[in-house]
Amino acid sequence: MHRGHNANDLVGSLEELGLSRYEAGAYLTLIRKGSLAASEISYYANLPRTKVYSTLKKLEKKRLSIVSQSKPLICSAIPPEEAFREIVKLYERRSKNMKKIVDRLQRITEEQRPKASEERRYYILDPNSTLEKMKSLIANSKSSVYAILDSWGIQLIIQCKLAMIKAITNGVNIRLLLANQCIGNENLPSLPEDIDLKIGNVTSNMIIIDSNNMVAVDSSNGKAALFASIDIFGLSQLRSFETEWNNALEIRQIVNMRPNIVMKANKLVKILESADIFGQISKNWDEPTSALIKSAQKLGIDIFDTGIDEMLTIIDCALRISCSGGLTHDKINNLMSIRSKVGSESVSRWVLLLATYLKHVGNDPKIIRDFKLNGVEDTIHIKLSKPISTKSNEETDSD
Predict the structure, then answer these.
(1) Is the pTM of this model over 0.85?
(2) Which is it for the CA torsion 24, 25, 30, 32, positive or negative?
């Protein structure tokens, strides 16, 4: 009995770190029993056979286990100290950030409050109370719900889905600004379609309702600080949110793309945004872009071993993430077009990547036109030396 109780506690703790109940049970079984076949994991972890393989794949994706390529599949757990090292560091940073946020808000309160005014307080909520309070505030909101969220915050807000639908029905404007690591999060497609989504360089979990209620959530323990009637410093936080929102990137159009495609696209975005990799783009493609290839390989992307359909989908997704653009393939005219809304320099870098790839697969590219559409969108066209066979746009988007 005592052992079972401890196991349940451990499963609950792992769920707080982002694992599902099945994933937590399977990982604990591997820690206790060592390397096991899928059927053995199903038996010892009391895991439905229909869920075993998908659960093991998710553990491997989260770098918590290693699955052999031979059959039968043998799964081994990565030692906890190694597997959770980065997660522990992340939660430590979140805890420090939470303390800084509360201290900052308290300082603003003290600076703005007249000496004779009534002291305003914030209330600490436990995890269950936090969720119920958020549901109530969102469902009864009158004009706006603005939130900054990380991966943990998305799991929290998704539980408020019915409240958000009610708010949207009442005409409330909901904006969610997500941290960069949320790209490809499996919960994003479940969010109501009428929510505005953007991604930016943010780290905290903060929800502002109607500009006068705010909930700041600590991702390390689920507790929250509730600020009610925050007229003075709430407006300051709202202005800060608006600034971050205006600098963030739209992601609604990539929500339904495959997570592995989105993750690869995001990695390429980071590589191409590195100023030390690229200089001015040249029309001579004979010089290899070794820095780009090596950087991609370090992040697990072997560009030259990627199929043409997947490569075009990754670049299209990356352009949507980085510059609200895209990639189109005109099969009739043997033409590819790269579009960007943030300037020609960004377009040029993606042209270099695509041209390098095309030349490697035996298709000599040629830039034929570079223009700005309606003064807003930069476009570069690439003429192919011969036709290439790809899936239709519908098939690619649905993969």
Answers:
(1) no
(2) positive
